[in-house]
Every structure is written in structure tokens, then in C-alpha cells.
User: Fold this.
Amino acid sequence: MEHNLAVGLDIGTTKIVAMIGRKNEYGKVEILGIGKSKSLGVHRGVVNNITQTIQSIQQAVQEAEVAADMKIMGVTVGIAGQHIRSLQHSDYITRPNSEHVIDEEDIDRLINQVHKLVMLPGEEIIHVLPQEYKVDGQAEIKEPIGMYGGRLEANFHVVVGQVSSIRNIGRCVQSAGLNLEGITLEPLASANAVLSQEEKEAGVALIDIGGGTTDLAIFRDGIIRHTAVIPFGGNVITEDIKEGCSIIEKQAELLKIKFGSAWPGENKDNEIVSIPGLRGREPKEITLKNLSKIIHARVVEIVEQVYVEIKNYGHEEQKKKLIAGIVLTGGGSQLKHLKQLVEYITGMDTRIGYPNEHLAGDSDDDITSPLYATAVGLVLDGLKRQERKKVEQQQKEIEEEENHEEEIKEKPVKERRSFLDKLTERVKDFLDNAE
Assistant:
């Protein structure tokens, strides 16, 4: 596979999507091919049947390969599911030499220390996301690299998940004949696809309503502050319609998509849908008012649970206010009048998030549907990962060249260092005399 290509694989509860994308000359992402298959063997974001999941992955990948006319080797996979939880943690390191400036290595040391946290049995840390740093007690530092200080501490947002669930997904991907190039948390992937940098700065809650789970990611000052996975999604709404109207699942899903609304007030009592009966039975008549009442009850429950999480983050404190409000994405966000209902329950500005933030202008409308937010985000993540690898490779080559030419280069390096030393001495002298 060529360098500026990446493949995102979104293993969801209702569908599995494989998406091939590449960066064009304007830095936007072109989607070359997309494949999707019905997800069998995944329940609430967790694999519960390996064989079926492998088949579904292969089907989606083949479809994408045909569309893009190329072979897929490696993929970036998203993980979500009801086993994901997050916690806040602060940690510090004492630096051996406070005369040196803080560099990447110090931050890596601090992050590695967080990775040693003791978790519940079977749990593992997936992401460690630094919030803000403190250097020698000076708080609210966003970027400590280049500063002087003896004690470096930070608040972290730590995302934790079940090792076995993550391994199962890895196993499915490998058994489907693919390389696992990267794993990303799905709420983060969706956020990359649908949120603008301004929204992340101002404070925003992204709610990704999938089939089996609803993912939440909260950003403020450009940093992720809170993540949560709520074990309900579009499927429970379909389930409720199926039970409430005594119809089969396929019909319930169609009813939800075609006539469903989250707001019961707007349907008249006399609006009726007729559903063919099974094998010669009488057709069933369902009033749209009843349908939207069923949907409304369940959606309110999901939104209220999400709102509890937003409050847990501290949205009601002045300093933590989410000025950009809520962005809804995922397949479930296409439900009619959902935006109004969410605004009504939370009192926060709401919009539907389409993953067109980074896509090339001529992308199909299909691809810019909220359904594909996570897949687009995973493609973006894969492309970013490749760029990082490229930079590292270049640095490595430069270092190797420098090692070859060390004898020739020794002098200038010494001179440069001594110039820096002189500058440092001048600054020190100035400070001493200023006292």
C-alpha cells in the first residue's frame, strides 16, 4: 500500500465499515472506496462471536477493495463498547537535573508512570491523555516542553477497557488476513471527523449514537476532558418498537427510519401506517403517534443518561462550561426532531455532526452521513499515524548520516553549543546583577 493511504475499520454493533482514504494535494481526505456489511457477532460494541465477526469484516473489506480497485493490507480499528470507562488521575515525576529543560523524554516518563496504575482484574489502560501540567507548582501549563523545573506533574484523563475484548477485536482483524496498524477509541475518532478546532476550544460534548452504544466525548480548551460509553443505542429503540407494536425486527427498523420521530406532539392521531402481516395474517395498523411515543420514551432515557455524564464532568461550573454545546453524530442522530429534544432536555445548543470537516469537497453525500463519522475518523487517524512514522524515519536517516559525518561535523556542533553557553551565562549574569 502506498504511503498516503489509510484504511479505517469501524466494527460496530449494527454494521462493519471498511473505508479507504488518502490525502489529496490540498491536505483534505479523499475517500477511494467504502464497504459495509451487517455486523453479526458484535453486541453492544463487544465481540461475542469471533467466526461471524471475521466473516463480516472480510465482506466489508472485499467490498471496499472492489470499490477502490486495490488490496487492503493494514487497518486502523476503533474500539468502543460497554466495558470502556474513564477516570481522572494526577501524577508527578521529580527530574534528576532541573538545569536541563523539560523534553519529550520527561513527558514519556510521566505517561509511562501512569501506565503502571493498578487496574481491576482484566482491565488495561488504552489511552493516557494529559490534561494540563504543573511545573514546580506553577499550574495551568499546556505545553511544558522547553521549560525549566525540578518537579513535573500533570492531570491525566485515563481511558480503561477490558483486555480480553480488545484482544478479541485484534484477533478478528488478524484472522481476516489484515495487519492491525493502530487502535483508537471510537469517540475520539468520531470527534476528529465532525468537530472543528474552535468547538474543541470553546467546549463541546460529542454524542455518537450508534447501534449498540452511545459514546460521549467532551472537549474544552482543545483537550479531551471526559469520555463515557453508555450501553444503549439505536437498537434498543428498534427493540422497543418491535415489542410495543408486536412486529418483527426488520419492520420495526424500517418504521423507525421512515416514520420515526423523537417528538410525539407533532403527529396527528389519524396518521396510520399499515404493516403487512406474517404469512397471510391480517395487516397491522400502527398510529404514528404511538410510534413516536415509544421512541420518545427511550430516547429521553438515553439523552438523560448522557446528560448525567455531562454534569459529572462539571458542565454547570462556570470554568467548565461547554460554550459550543452538543454535537450529535452516528446513525442514531438521523432520527427526526432529535436535535430539538436534546436541546429541550439539556438546554444546550445542539447541531448534527457530519464528517465533512476534513473531507475533499466532491465527496459523495453518502460518505458525509453521520453514519460514517467513526470510519472517517479512523481513516484520519491512520493517515496521521503514517505521517508520524514518516517523520520518525526521516529523523532516523538524518541521525545515521550525522553519525557517518561525525568527524567532519564535530567542530560546528561544539561552536554552536559554546554560543548557547555564552548566551546562558549572559542571562545568568544579568539576573545576578538585577537582584
About this structure: Residues 373-404 form the longest helix (32 residues). Residues 85-161 form a domain with the Dna Ligase; domain 1 fold (CATH 3.30.1490.110). The CA atoms of residues 67 and 343 lie 39 Å apart.
